[in-house]
Amino acid sequence: MAASLTPRDIGLGVGVALVWGMGVVFAKAAIETFPPILLMCFRFALTAALLVWFVPVPRGHLARLFWIAVVSAAIQYSLVFTGLKSIDASVAVLVIQLEVPFLTLIGALFLGERTSLRKWTGIAIAFGGVALIAGVPEVAAAWGAVLMVISGAIAWAFGQAMVRLLHGLNGLTTTAWVAVMATPQLLIMSLIFENGQVEAIRNANAMVWATVLYLGVGMTALGYGMWYSLVRRNPVSHVAPFLLLLPVFGVLGGYLFLGERLAGLALIGGGIVIAGVGFILTDKPVDSATV
Question: Which candidate, 160, 145, 46, 127, places its Cα nearest to that of 89?
């Protein structure tokens, strides 16, 4: 992989994984005192405010973008970050890696994409790793939160499948307008499922607003900007393995900044999950488009 990538591209790939992995850590710290869905609302509001001025209005695509935002942003982030409130960031960042196996499954079942034996093997390995993580007593005790994170991974995968069917829009335009659509959607979700929003905003500390800034500018605008820059210049098969560093940085961040300690079984399970996702991400693309 590295032989075909410039040092700049390698730096960007590692940077993307670092920025995205640490986002879960900082969000975990913020939602200890702030409603998680409302936090995501502010995140997307900031992203929209930053990006929407630099992209055209995607006329003819607004209805599809609305539903993509519902699935991949409003539902996904509500589930993942509400679940994150009750489990360690280290556990969440490992479980959320099921996004890749779920996307592969959805591509095979609904988009007619051919899936190799290597990918099926990777899917089985990843699910086995999550099963081990779920067997850790403190994780098993928060099974509802783990299920929410897994459900969020499924929502993300469906959202990405919807994006694959969206033609004629570049990544920046899609990111900007999904953020525009997601902001009011997440506000409605917060008003339905959370309470005390006004008091939370009044009492929000510097950590909350720094997290909003990090998630809106660093994780979304900068992170996706770096990612799209990489994908435009290199084959996806060359840059996708950098995503395997995301849970590594997330676990390290949880250890360094939140004082989290993963149980031995969870570490083993996390390693198995990463290995399974690696099987999928490093598989060579298949030419045929039918199962």
Answer: 145
